[in-house]
Amino acid sequence: MEGLNRAFLKLHYMREHPVFILWSTVYFVSFGKIQNEGQSAGNHMNNLGSSETTREAITLDYKKIFEGWLIGFAEGDGGFSIDKRGYLVFKVTQSSVDAQVLFYIKKELGFGSVTVQSKLNKTHQYRVRDKDNLLKIINIFNGKHIVTVRYVISQKDDVEFSKLLANLIDGYVTHIKSYDGYNTVVNFGKLNKILNYLHNYPLKTKKHVSYLRWLKVYHLVKDKKHLTESGIEIIKDKIKFINK
Description:
- By secondary structure, the protein is of the alpha+beta class.
- The chain has 3 domains: 2-74; 77-141, Roll (Endonuclease I-creI), CATH 3.10.28; 154-240, Homing endonucleases (Endonuclease I-creI, Roll).
- The protein has helices at 2-15, 21-31, 41-77, 99-109, 131-141, 159-168, 192-200, 207-222, 229-240, and strands at 78-82, 88-95, 113-118, 123-128, 154-155, 172-176, 181-185.
- The protein has a 4-stranded antiparallel sheet. The protein has a 3-stranded antiparallel sheet with strand order 5-7-6, covered by helices on one side.
- The radius of gyration is 22 Å and the shape is elongated.
């Protein structure tokens, strides 16, 4: 079970950020009901109480999912460190192109600062230095910050994680001799789990644009456009721009 939890945490990091479509849907359903004519005050209050309970449950779920994402995201692009003056700092770094993710973290947590880290390298950072807010961050991470290496798609140091991830998404693991690493591979026909996951929890950074471009290629192949010469040319052209 710990291994699966670990895989889920890193999957959170790999897809970057959850957008809670279901949350907003439930929210508007709960508070958008039209009261029937002649409904008693008592019934109205009961419904209100029910709505309040629903709202609290949704808020707690939102917070839990955000914290789970933050742990995985920080394990890839940040963490705790000691600065030059000997003070504890929590920091998450991103390319300046994706600085909006850092502002999102600040907004959700309600504290911290976002600043330019390096004009030369074009990076921004989210940083927490004061004791009270560091304790809040520590309470979120306490007992859950369990991954010691940064994982992307290919793993050089931990084949066990690759196997767990492969099992989670109905894939398999291959060994790449050129750099002595492992790739987690998913067959085309078994991509639904990943697609559903990314549909429910869309990417937040510029990788979302790359994903949407890749998704167009996926649908072209799914529609068997790759079986014609003209279709292959269209696909090749779109592939060139996936990461542009």
